[in-house]
Write a structure and sequence with these properties.
Strand content: under 5%
Largest sheet: none
Distance between the termini: 25 Å
Number of helices: 12
Structural class: mainly alpha
Length: 301
């Protein structure tokens, strides 16, 4: 298939398979929710660092809530927050396995079933591959930069931050070369390191498809830009609503209304991102299925 045919087929599958979009929407929701919480905390830390006393701590928000709200509400909030964090951390890896497997089945004309089995069976391998490049995550690197700024003094601070972002760039470069590793694990049922090697060989062997790769990278970059904008806009809207409602409502009611509005905005954004998430992943899946048909270039005879 040509790159244009792959793009068209991936978009057709994305629109046709509602089960893949459900996995993608749920995954995008939890990923977005985690990013919003991380960035919201960093916005608070930045505000305290610039205009406050510079002594913001990790649990300042929780302490403020504990002192200003009923204790039953505070502990309910903390338990829900911890449960959400666990789901946000693990569920996207499960969803990725389901989306890859269902996309491959749809492309090959097989019944698009078994998403839960695909998610559970491939979870540990996909989780391990993802965590190898955890420093390639923008929100993680921003969080670590915030920690470095607040807790490391002297000239070493600049050097550590520079090293962190060099590692971030290198992690993203490696992630590009290992882009097919998750597809190899799900579709071919091979081990993690074998999948990494197979992905590297495919990327190097067919790097000549530069126009297709550039188009794919453009789609990925577009999603990252939109995701970054949403991650910043939603906390800003919630803060504005909370400050406005706080002028004439109680603290508890203000937090409840602000939380409901924030979750509703996140769900709406997740529905939009589900299409982009499933489409991008399906492009990689179809590309892997097409490229693995060819003989390895290092095989002679």
């Amino acid at each position: 298939m040509t790159p244009r045919e792959i793009i068209a087929e991936a978009w057709a599958i994305t629109r046709r398979e509602s089960s893949m979009r459900r996995w993608g929407c749920t995954s995008a929701f939890f990923e977005l929710l985690l990013s919003i919480k991380l960035i919201s905390y960093q916005i608070y830390f930045l505000y305290e660092y610039v205009s406050g006393n510079g002594g913001a701590g990790f649990f300042d928000v929780e302490i403020i809530m504990y002192n200003s709200m009923p204790h039953w509400f505070f502990w309910t909030f903390v338990i829900i927050l911890l449960l959400l964090f666990a789901i946000e951390f693990f569920f996207p890896h499960m969803a990725r396995g389901a989306i890859i497997g269902l996309g491959a089945k749809s492309h090959m004309g097989e019944p698009v079933k078994g998403g839960t089995v695909l998610a559970l069976y491939n979870f540990f391998a996909i989780f391990a591959i993802h965590e190898m490049f955890v420093l390639g995550s923008l929100s993680t690197s921003i969080t670590l930069t915030s920690v470095i700024v607040r807790y490391i003094d002297g000239n070493a601070k600049t050097a550590v931050i520079a090293l962190l972002w060099i590692v971030w760039a290198f992690s993203n470069l490696l992630r590009f070369f290992f882009s097919f590793s998750e597809e190899a694990v799900v579709i071919d049922k091979i081990g993690i390191f074998e999948a990494l090697g197979k992905s590297f060989k495919l990327i190097i062997s067919y790097l000549g498809h530069i126009m297709f790769l550039l188009l794919l990278l453009f789609v990925i970059s577009l999603r990252i830009i939109l995701n970054a904008a949403i991650v910043i806009i939603i906390p800003g809207c919630i803060i504005g609503i909370v400050l406005f409602l706080g002028m004439f409502l109680s603290t508890l009611l203000t937090w409840i209304i602000g939380g409901v509005i924030g979750i509703a905005m996140t769900v709406a954004a997740s529905y939009f991102f589900a299409y982009l998430h499933v489409f991008k992943q399906t492009v990689w899946t179809i590309t892997y299925l097409e490229l693995r048909k060819h003989k390895d270039l290092d095989v002679i005879g």
